[in-house]
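We modelled the chain as a single entity of 354 amino acids. Its sequence is:
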Amino acid sequence: MDRAPGLSVRLKLTLSYAGFLMLAGGVLLVAGYFSLSRGVHPGVIFMVRSHSDLWRDFAPLAAIVMGFLLVFGLVGGWLLAGRMLAPLTRITDATRVAADGSLSHRIQLPGRSDEFRELADSFDAMLARLEAHVAEQQRFAANASHELRTPLAITQTLLDVARNDPNRDKGELVDRLHAVNTRAIDLTEALLMLSRADQRSFARERVDLSLVAEEAAETLLPLAEKRGAAIEMSGEMAHAVGSHALLLQLSTNLVHNAIVHNLPEHGNVWVRTSVQPKSAVLTVENTGEQLTPQVVATLAEPFLRGTERIRRDHAGVGLGLAIVKSITQAHGGTLTLSPRPDGGLCVGVELPAA
């Protein structure tokens, strides 16, 4: 925003200090003048012949005192204002550095807590969050580009093979193109879902997490039966406020991950809902391979998977838990991931209660 030039804050404070000092001095001089005009002074009795004589003697002294107060107020006010505003200067310099694109700079204002230091600490915390967010977005953009390029490159290769080998089986080519195209569509829809959750542009309503989780489990029951996994539902009604569609997507992603990343056979998936004093909780656990806390900490990152990267049987696009995390944050909730001692993963989603 373009603004007209004005006085600096330091100059305004200086003038304020000097003006207040002049006003206080003027009041004291007036009080002293009237005291002398009545012939009264602490401890001394003056015999004044006339007001003109008193004014002739008092005026030069008053002028000298007021001049001294003016100079003292301006110089002292300028120095005091500079000292008081020094932290604000550091904060301003830091904002300019951040505006130039350097998010790693920190103010780190020393000293005890006051208004300026609280502002500086808040600004440092904001820069840290912004730097982490930008780094995450850069990784996400790079990973998304890589993931989108892979099906396009495979499609281009298949088309080149078909063009160079007219006698090749067209049925096999069509099937492979269909699978690659399906993966590209799934990835695009997942990216759109993630963007929608990040923008938080959705209508909110009262949602029962137990019904949403049950709907997701019923939808994925054929997949669970195909992979030999048993789904067990338990819990109570747990009402939250949010988007039914997004919370259904959240539940579906959790149950899908629990089914796919499970034991090869005779696996188990436990879906539970519960109510806390101020929150509604959805918990999904599954059996599976042993996971370390270091691996679990990265599972909610986009395009990262806990098992091998390339799988053909419902491997997904690597955005399942990233979408869950984004939807949870958009609803003001918290996502907790922890490895199970016997293998597998436990995921808890805690949302503010309706």
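As a brief sanity check on the tokenised model: The chain is about 60% helix and 15% strand. Residues 140-199 form one domain.
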